[in-house]
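Researcher: I need the complex structure. Ligand is pyridoxal-5'-phosphate. Inputs:
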Amino acid sequence: MKYQDLLKAADKFGTPCYVYDASKIKKQYDRLINSFKTVKNLKINYAVKALSNLSILKYINYLGAGIDTVSIQEVLLGIKAGFSPEKIIYTPNGVSIKEIIKVSKMGVNINIDNLNMLEQFGSTHSKIPVCIRINPHVMAGGNNKISVGHIDSKFGISIHQIPLLLRIVKNTNINVNGIHMHTGSDILDIEVFIHAAEILFETASKFENLEFIDFGSGFKVPYSPGDNETNIEELGSKLSKRFNEFCYDYGKELTLTFEPGKFLVSEAGNFLCSVNSIKQTTSTVFAQIDSGFNHFVRPMMYGSNHYIENISNPDDSERFYSIVGYICETDTFATNRRISMISEGDILCFKNAGAYCFSMASNYNSRYKPSEILFYNNEFTEIRKRESFEDLIKNQIEINF
Ligand SMILES: *Cc1c(COP(=O)(O)O)cnc(C)c1O
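Model: Output:
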């Protein structure tokens, strides 16, 4: 998408809005598939929580992927978008046994990450196959909020508990059809990933009826020109080789599964805002936009650095700005950033706004959630309307005093 296209979208649909480029999602999907082309059975399950708009899910379905879900509501969204239950895996953490049972009865693959839940589920539903989420205790990922594989993480069943896991499987006679790990986001070191994979292979060899091994996700994508990223092609060639060797030893062609969220949709997303005002203080020039952490919380929550372009005036001389929002609380998107000269009314574009952006939006300060637009086959289509006052009040019940 070019500046002109994005400006047209801002003009047509108003700001703030999210604009997603379908061709970028496809490009990433194809890249992943090609990196693992020597693996006979490969399955990509898109992690719905990254971006859960129904039209995006339908597009992902059209590409041929399945989905990874973390709540029964995501499962329902997936089914509404046309995924058959067999193409859905459910990987919850900390949900009730009731929800797990309910989802399993919908025909969705269950991934269990807790021995207590496994025992409860196995004692009552031993005929339904389950996948087991292992925690290999490999510290991967960018920071503590997004790294979920370390020793004190609440995710997965510790590799140190394998003996108890095996005992529960034997006692309940439950059928384990998959082994899974997901160690966190922003993996850069391929060797660390392979090390975790070795632990997974070792665990997998203890189960006889496996159909798949799920390596989760956590691929890092570039956030600005020249930023580093997971080398998917290198990971693909190394892991494929090891996977094929493992299958040979295991005596069965298993399916290699991934469940990327960020990798597929992050770079496809652009967040467009208008500049409400320029405000100078003693030390700083602020550009204040018509949004805040109600719409886009990643910079504040994870300290993520989203690249920002002034698409109304892209080639002027650069100045230093702090980009802030309109929320009555500190909501800094970027500090002391060099950006082509900004004036009131300009449209700023935040890159990498596809993953964990709209899906984390709220109504804080009683603002409406923004609209979402899909750019597909050279056309912009609104895939979610901007909210209205009715949306803000629709579930509220008024008491008269
Ligand atoms: C969030 C999540 C993913 C996706 O992670 P990304 O870093 O967005 O690729 C995959 N698997 C599970 C179980 C998750 O919770």
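Model: Summary of the prediction. The first strand starts at residue 17 and ends at 21.
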